[in-house]
Amino acid sequence: MMDETTISAKSPGKLILLGEYAVLEKAPALVAAVNRHCKVQIESLYNSTFQVRTPNLNIPEIQFILDKDGDAHFRTNVDSKTQEQLHFVLAILKYVSQKAGKIPGASISIDTTSFYHRITGNKFGLGSSAALTVSLVSALMKYIGKNITEEVLYREAFLAHRFAQGKMGSGVDIAASTTGGIISYTMPEDPEQLNGNIQRIKRPDNLYMACIWAGYAVSTRNFVRNVHTYKNEQQKAYDKLLGTMSMLSREGVKAFAGNDSEAFLDIISDFLECERQLGKSSGTEIVSDVHEEISSIVKAQGGTYKPSGAGGGDIGIAFCNSHECMEKITSAIEGSMFDLMKLEIQNKGVQISERKEVG
Hints:
The chain folds into two domains: 3-201 and 346-358, Ribosomal Protein S5, domain 2; 208-341, Alpha-Beta Plaits (2-Layer Sandwich). It contains nine helices and 13 strands. The protein has helices at residues 80-100, 128-143, 150-165, 172-179, 220-233, 235-257, 261-282, 289-300, 323-334, and strands spanning 3-18, 29-44, 50-54, 59-66, 72-74, 106-111, 182-186, 197-200, 208-213, 304-308, 315-320, 339-341, 351-358. Strands 1, 2, 3, 4, 5, 6, 7, 8 and 13 form a nine-stranded mixed sheet that branches. Strands 10-11-9-12 form a four-stranded antiparallel sheet, with helices on both faces. The chain is globular.
């Protein structure tokens, strides 16, 4: 008789409140974990075969084995489109097998449904790939009997994410999915150490927030690449602008942690103006026409607004410091073409459970 093991892991998504782009220059970013989860379930198989199921992504269930280097070999012919769709998951499997040892055969189910619009199928900019990485790495480590701390999980998930996607990104989304709550995050000074600074912070008592869906998704990778090109071509102008954004990020984190919502709202307004300038200078529509339209609606009701994340599309956040003002904002958005998103702060980071049954 053999034990049948089932490992379940779920990790929250993220919402950046302040510090986009500046975080890549080692400024602190303010980020919240939110109640959209990537759920991973691993069930043991009695042989060396793996199968991956992704119920919400319309990827056909495929079977494969991993060789000693962690590379996948498919049991049947798999078209290039399916291989590309599975690239990220297979890369994480390879990273974990190389780093932690041989992974026994398993059936792996991955559910990222809550990161997609239920009607249009558009992907929200809530860090689904980071949540997937944290869930899958933590579940795989548990499956092969490695108990790791939150700090080690952050580091290994960051490395696995970079291995799968390339050395882009600050790790802010990995930190949020791992830790939960609202955190101040500063990326590592030494990229090889990945010892980013993560500090939990409480939201100011009278700071209200509402998340608004712009209606379409954008490529964070392309936006970051455009900004990086601007940095290389106009270093002096870039340094001046990002210096201001970095200062605002530091002051914003300080105001937020110090329960000073009024100062925080002023900083949000100034940061939005810097994002406009960065977009114009880099030829990137960070504060797009859609975000400008939402910002006008929010501002007319007495609030402050900025895009969350790379900008362009995805999600924006309305901020204000009174319940009455927030009621006006939500009413105005509900009467517009834009959608309010029911996002809440998720205080818990990744959650893992294990069940064993004697077969």
